[in-house]
What does this fold into?
Amino acid sequence: MAELTLAHEQRLLLRAQAHRLNPLVRLGAAGLSEAALQEIDRALRSHGLIKVRAAAAQRATRDALSRSMAERLGAARVQIIGNTVILFRPIPETVAPAPVGSGRYLRGGASAPRRSASRKASQR
It folds into this structure.
């Protein structure tokens, strides 16, 4: 896969959103293993915007590592700050949402429709 490219305005917006995030994946001395790559892929599928902390000592190593992650996962590197890489990939929409109010129960956390107290009393 190729690395995604972002417009400058979109990159600034994503940087602001990522400010409050904690790193979801931490890479150790082994670097970018297949297990770590799968975990980053899973995090991108569920969150879209993530931070990855890499333990590489040299800047060139961190840059190569972040470039490899972005290319192999089809993600965009939003920002690199020290040992932390911010990655973005749009979340795929695999399932179409059901129409609101369809089915037996209401959507949005509401339970089954409630009967009023006067209707309950009249049914007894």
